[in-house]
Amino acid sequence: MIELQKIYKWHNNGNNRVFLLKDINLTVEEGAFISIMGPSGSGKSTLLNIIGMLDGPSEGSYRFLGQDVFNIKEKQRSQLYKENIGFVFQAYHLIDELTVYENIETPLLYQNIKSAERQAIVADMLDRFQIVGKKDLFPAQLSGGQQQLVGIARALVAKPKLLLADEPTGNLNSKQGEEIMQLFKQINEEDGVTIIQVTHSEKNAAYGKRIIELLDGRIEKK
Amino acid sequence: MIKNYFKMAWRNLVKHKFISFINLFGLTVGLTCCLLITVYILHETSYDKYNTNASRIYRVTRSFNNKDGAVTLRLGTVAPPFGPLLQNYFPDIQKMTRLLENGKTPVRYEEKIFNEDKLFFADENLVDIFNVAVTKGNPHRALLDPYTGMVTEEIAKKYFGDQDPMNKMIRINNQFNLKITGVYKAFPSTAHIHPEIMVSFNTLKDTAIYGQKSLETNFGNNSFFTYLLLPENYPYQNIIAKFPAFLDDRVHFPGAPANFKPSLRTTLGLQKLTDIHLRSHLDTEAEENGDIMRVYIFGVIALIILLIACINYMNLSTARSTLRAKEIGIRKVAGATRQELIAQFLSESVLISCMSMLLAFGCVALVIPWLNTLSGLTLSLSILLKWQIIVVILLVPFIVGLVSGVYPALFMSAFQPVKTLKGLFRAGGRSISFRQALVVVQFTISIVLIITTAIVFQQLGYMQKASLGYNKDHIVVLPYNIATTTQYESLRNDLLANANIRNVGRSSRIPTGRLLDSQNAALIEADSLQPINTELKFLAGDYDFIPTYDIQMAAGRNYSRDFGTDTSSYVVNEATVQTLGWGTPEKAIGKELSYGGMRGKVVGVMQNFHFESMHQKIVPMVLVLPRLQQAGFFHSISIKFSGANTTEALQAIEKAWKKNVPETPYEFDFLDNRFQKQYESEQRQGSLFTIFACIAIFIACLGLLGLSSFAITQRIKEIGIRKVLGAGAGSIVMLLSKDFLKLVVIAAVIAFPVAWYAMHQWLADFAYRISISWWIFIAAGIIAATVALLTVSIQAIKAAMANPVKSLRTE
What's the pLDDT tens digit per position in B590-603? Predict the structure, then answer.
């Protein structure tokens, strides 16, 4: 599903070239559950953003579902992204002005799905995450765990093949974190969604089937 | 999708109430100005277009040249014989009509007696050329027979109440009885002329009133409005081109040599009816006209204010974009394309401008009555109810929304999601400089308007306070007509018997009016007449005119009853002495002059005084003392009273008037009122400019408020660090305000030459004017800078007082 070859990412700081990622080679099969670990500044998030097509590498190639991501047209890449990738953030990143229902609905709006169909899909999601009673509340009215639940529901609403999570439990207490991890495991096993998560916690990393250690922009060992 | 955009827009509007208020308010003010000015422009450009024949009606004009060919007088009225002669000479003229304004005329019905200003003699063709809504009587016969005429519904009501006005008799000028044969609806406010009583033209054939012969031969009395009806799309320039030939062929001035060519000294012209209100500025007009320049200026001002308001929206929206960076990031992560985000932001700005448009309509409805009193216009919102205009008005919010929304939309939709979501977001430096440029534009406009306003008022003050050369205070003026002549002496004696009355004098015109009449003048050298090339204006005045107005003599004496020969003497002003090259006033005394064919010696020279408004140069004039039988020259009585006891003086005047001239209604005016009226148009201009300047600077400040709050948020960390390092609040306010002050200085540098040029042009209209002083520019700059500083300080002080721990912690 994902093939990264010789990915480099740097930025120029005066005369110095500061490397964020160096020579990353990574293959991810469909259905995988990968945890990326590493100290602050090791390039975890940068790697995740490149995989999520939010950022481009300075050098190297990236194939996603057989397509050369950075050599296709912007429109095609956007399509590829919209249909296949969902994002979950540490800070939830819900839109404050929208209700739970509307937040979950947002990705569907950008895929030109008809209103009636959207309603059905969102209702399904609310049901599945057991937040039907909260659908008309605004993010500020929810606890952190509930907000992250909405965040995940939103990431999954468009039925992506790949779920990318950047420290999804970083702002949660351990009980809430555990529930989210259980959910991830369930999504991975029952729905076959590929998951790549960045985490600091050994315990959460253990939910993954495979752990990648990053240090100074390099993959340490597999 | 659109529904979602609007939902989001609405929630944002509600959430950020302050910014939304500023945005809505700014746009509403801008659109209100725009709508008002649109109403004004539509009103001004719609004059006379209600006539079915509007495009086919032309007015005949006449101008006079001196011997050098320079035009000395331009009239919107011509002599009575021209109408029929033209119709006879040019077969393409389908119809012709003439109107003669009779000036202030006493009209009586039974016990009711009023002075009527709008009494005209009009012929029966009028209703065929113009649209006149005749509600009673036969429109084609009502103006046919002598001593018959039509009145407006208002006049009918005023004199006859609820009685049927038809066939009622009213007495005109205590001279003849008029039978009412028709009633019509008053001409619309967008007509250039508004007759309220129309007396049949044939009445003028009565020798006692005007005389058939005068109508056919008097080329000197140019007071007849003459209109022609030509075929559709007629090349009327062809007629104008043939006017000189026509004049030489058909016109013979009485007393002129047989080979004299009238076309050398006089010119006829044609004006389109629809051009009269905005493009005609002749020395005689039916009513005060508008000015096409003013229409253009207001159009530009409308667009400028709207532009300032749009700039504001851009500024505030981009300034607020940091707040929305996260939303934009999330939407992009959720799959939104840039186009979709642009569409979203544009629909927000369109929504806001639609709301503003609605509010603006409300404001306009509220403001119009007030504006009408301020400007003396009769504007109405209903002028907008035409489909072409409604379509444009519906489009405006979309255009305004797009114009003001497109920059913020492009700017915000380009945000990188990775950065915005990581909290690394900083709007780039380029966008700041763009917004700074916008602020400079706003302040440039504001400063130009401040300077403009100041100079308009300075000139106004100068004109009102300048030494006039006569004393305008405590003078009452009353109308005088030939019927008053017999009672005049006893009226004057009664008045002077009262200790509060200082002087009573008669004259053909009074100061504050125009000085348009002139007669042929010639110098007498060795018994031969040497014609004078420059025109000497003519003013008929009696013995008491000079003392009533406190006009000072430069040499010689005033006319005096003690000199029986004074009817063949002349009093001139200093300008005449200079023009005729007599050297000093003293040397002028005793010089011989022929004026209007009458020879006489100069006995006195008046010091120059401003008979006309400051728009006009002081012209050479001759004060003529008419002989007794020429008392018809007089049109006004001026009464000088003591300022100590105004009420008593006025009572005495009224009493004496009612006793001596009972058949003329007592209607007085203070000279001071007339004096103020001369500058009414400047006064209005000044008030409107003040309003526009205030609005412009107000909206500009709203924008500045937005920009400064944005810039300060950007620098919050810097402020925090400086405070930790020991900077005081004062130095931080300085630091933040300095940048904005720079913008105002740049704006001032751009504004100064623009304002100077504009006002230089404006002042050129006045013969007597102030010189533009530099301190006005400095003052305008300081005002703008102060207002800007105050605006910025509100934000800067808040930032400087904030606890640095807070701002540093967020990093």
Answer: 988 888 888 889 99
Distance from CA of B328 to the nearest CA of A (A): 9
**Residue from B333, B339, B345, B425 whose CB has the most chain A CBs within 10 Å, to mutate:** B333
Residues B540 and B633 both lie in one domain: yes
d(CA B442, CA B458): 24
User: Are B495 and B585 in the same domain?
Assistant: yes
Instruction: Say whether both B149 and B160 belong to one domain.
Output: yes
Write out the CATH class of domain A2-219: alpha beta
Q: Are B486 and B618 part of one and the same domain?
A: yes
**B570 shares a domain with B448:** no
**Domain contains B492:** yes
Q: Residue A109: its chain B contacts at CB < 8 A?
A: 1, 4
Joined together, the tokens standing for residue B202 give 């044939």
User: Which of A201, A158, A161 is closest to A180 using CA atoms?
Assistant: A201
Q: Is B320 on the interface with A (CB under 8 A)?
A: no
To the nearest whole angstrom, how far is the Cα of B9 from the nearest Cα of chain A?
Answer: 10
- B421–A95 C-beta distance less than 8 A: no
- Model pLDDT for residues B24-67, shown as the tens digit of each residue: 888 898 899 888 888 888 899 999 999 999 999 999 999 988 77
Q: List the structure tokens of B596.
A: 């209007």
Write down the domain spans for chain A: 2-219
Q: For position B521, what pLDDT does the model report?
A: 84
Q: Give the pLDDT of residue B811.
A: 36
Distance CA B210, CA B678 (A): 32
- Tokens standing for residue B59: 């007015």
CB contact under 8 A, B333 and A87: yes
Same domain, B666 and B695: no
Per-residue pLDDT tens for B639-689? 999 888 888 999 999 999 989 988 888 888 999 998 988 888 888 888 888
Can you tell me the ipTM of this complex?
0.84
Helices within B534-679 (DSSP H only) = 545-548, 574-579, 585-588, 646-660, 671-678
Chain centroid to Cα B281, Å, comes to 12
Indicate the residue among B637, B653, B674 that finishes a domain: B674
